[in-house]
Amino acid sequence: MKQYRAFCFDLDGTVYRGKEAIPAAIKFIRTLREKQLDYFFVTNNSSKTPSQIKEALLRFGVEASEKQIYSSAFVTAKYVKEHFGQAKVFVIGQDGIRYALGQHNIHIVEENPDVVVMGIDRMITYQKLAKACLAVQNGATLIGTNEDIRVPTEAGFQPGNGSFVKLVAQVCNVEPIFLGKPSPAILEMIRQGHGYQKSEMVMIGDNYDTDILCGIRFGCDTVHVNTGAVSTEKVKEKELQPTYCVQDLSEFEL
């Protein structure tokens, strides 16, 4: 592996799988810390606050500050603030997206919104989806924190946020705006915030359609690990290839 200054990791399927750590990834991150190399965690999971993600990582033996954690919730809140200003927002989602919107002083409402923001909500109901559909049909802009159709767990795949956003979009016959990976916005935030060149950054992940395409669209090197959502066999069928394909991060020496 060439010399990078910033290692950007996906979380679920890359650093851990559900509640189980991926040992090679944990060891690799610890080595980065020992060598005083910069690393960041880039997740499409909008359900947790940076503090909650930090605590979850610590349980896997990974030390990180909140400044090293970039979620689709944060990039979505930033986008809403920049493009919709003082708009009223109806939210489907958990702690992470609500915290991020609050940090950006965005006005959250239950009725007559200008924007509908959808993040993963493990307490999703028909009523919430119906409310979102009616708001969008009345002119609200539909924004999803991410478009993941499914998420890997130790028990198998479960529905991701994208499956619910696309349900609302299909009912309303609109195209939603997605801010998480594979949009390069989240990596651009890291680049601007820390002054890296794209050539100094590398995106590491298990999901070709989110992690790897995010890096490719951003213009940095990418590493696909065969530990999560998409197998190496499937990745090798893609037209645009990652810079590296490995079984796990034990194959790399720093």
UniProtKB/TrEMBL annotation:
One of its GO terms (cellular component) is cytoplasm. InterPro entries: HAD-like_sf (IPR036412), HAD-SF_hydro_IIA (IPR006357), HAD-SF_hydro_IIA_hyp1 (IPR006354), HAD_sf (IPR023214). The active site is at D10 (nucleophile), D12 (proton donor). Keywords: Hydrolase, Magnesium, Metal-binding. Mg(2+) binds at D10, D12, D206. Substrate binds at K181. GO terms for molecular function: metal ion binding; phosphatase activity. PANTHER family: 4-NITROPHENYLPHOSPHATASE-RELATED, HALOACID DEHALOGENASE-LIKE HYDROLASE DOMAIN-CONTAINING PROTEIN 2. This is TIGR01457 family HAD-type hydrolase. It comes from Ureibacillus terrenus. The lineage of its organism: Bacteria, Bacillati, Bacillota, Bacilli, Bacillales.
